[in-house]
Amino acid sequence: MSTPEILTEREEGVLRVRIHRPDKKNALTLAMYAALTATLNEATEDATVRAVVLTGGGDSFSSGNDIADFLATPPTGEDSPVLRFLTALRQFEKPLVAAVNGLAVGIGVTMLLHCDLVYARTGATLTMPFVNLGLCPEGGSSLLLPRRLGYPRAAELLLLGEPFSAEQALEWGLINGIGVDADATLALAMDRARRLAQQPAAAVRLAKLLLKRNETEILRETITLEGRYFIELLHSPEAVAALRAFVERRRT
What we know:
The protein is 50% helix and 17% strand. It has eleven helices and ten strands.
């Protein structure tokens, strides 16, 4: 499903999905979440799609939520566009590869935790400033980060919301590799995706299912619980003030 802000292209069994709102650093609106969800659902049903690559346009992967759009129509429950997108990510059965071409913030980072392979551009910066904005982790990050990085490092990233580099992410085992620039990073991700597309499809999907089987149910529960707390915190004075200040800084 291609839209002006979510572009898709097929190549050798690979569906490339580009978040394309470069003037806003690919900040995600409700309409973009809906388009991404529809794209993943369509890819699930399309037998000619054997793997999916997620990337961004311009110099950013995604700066996370479009805060103004988010505040105008905040999520209210599991049927909200952002939570439907997270469900589609969690349930996606085919190989999912990310090419992080630049800045990744908030859900721009947490969505990577659901990808099977992740490659990032040299110098790319990632950050999860949920607590800084008076909010809590989302996208299953409170479960997946400690499992992958250990509690001390996960606590540092989530409680302090400090940025970290692609090089650090590679050292910590959070990503698979680094490209010298955005083009090289996408080429690397596409090469891996094409190789995955050439593998026996049923075997690949079963292997992914088995790799994730120990976290499937608890991840679903965690995303639901995080979403509930996230929605509650959105109305707190701390979050309202922090988010409004963030929007004002963007406007100046």
